[in-house]
Amino acid sequence: MAGPSSKKRVSKQPAPKEPAFKAPRYIVVEGPIRVGKSTLAKVLAEQLHARRVFDCEDNPFLADFYDEKPGAAFRAQMYFLYERHRRLAETRPEDNAAPIVSDFLFEKDKIFAYINLDNEELKLYEKYFDMLAPSVPTPDLVIYLHAKPEVLRKRVSKKGDPAEKEISPEYVEAVARAYGHFFFRYSASNLLVVDTTEIDFVERNQDLQELLRRLRQPVKGTQYFLPLGQS
Fold this sequence. Notes:
By secondary structure, this protein is of the alpha/beta class. Helix content is about 40%, strand content about 10%. A six-stranded parallel β-sheet has the order 2-3-1-4-5-6, sandwiched between helices.
């Protein structure tokens, strides 16, 4: 009979390591007017040495839209649709290239279409949207910034942009509601929802740093972040 010394020793295999956090390669910052999305996108792009894709700011039909000229809403919306698709389709995320940071999500174009177009215009718009959407890459992470409509209205007034002085409080509120409705159902990417009602990272660096600290942590599914704001 074999003695105890002949028993084989079974070596314990180390438990498999959890995969390290993989930083998102394609990040989108979204939200309604004056919520700070372009400011945050610019900061993120600088920190990540990323390629920047920023929304169209020279829509030639926008002034007529704000003046409520007939047909201007459709012309402005179709220009935005074309220009947003062009910018995103030309900048696709690649493993060996710099990450991408954008201050707009292609699907958000529909938010404004539903608010501003009549039924017949919307039917035509949706045909073009459905044709273009499949060629746009899906983000790894979307950061949705939101704030109460009254806060957004104050920020619009404080900014004093001549192009925005014609925007009515009712329109700002309608856009804020539409954004909330859209992102409540959004599931195409990981989503971080950030309430900026009590913070202003455009004006206060400490608010910006708090948000940046959160963005260094992984986001899975839909998560919410409520910054502390000023004490």
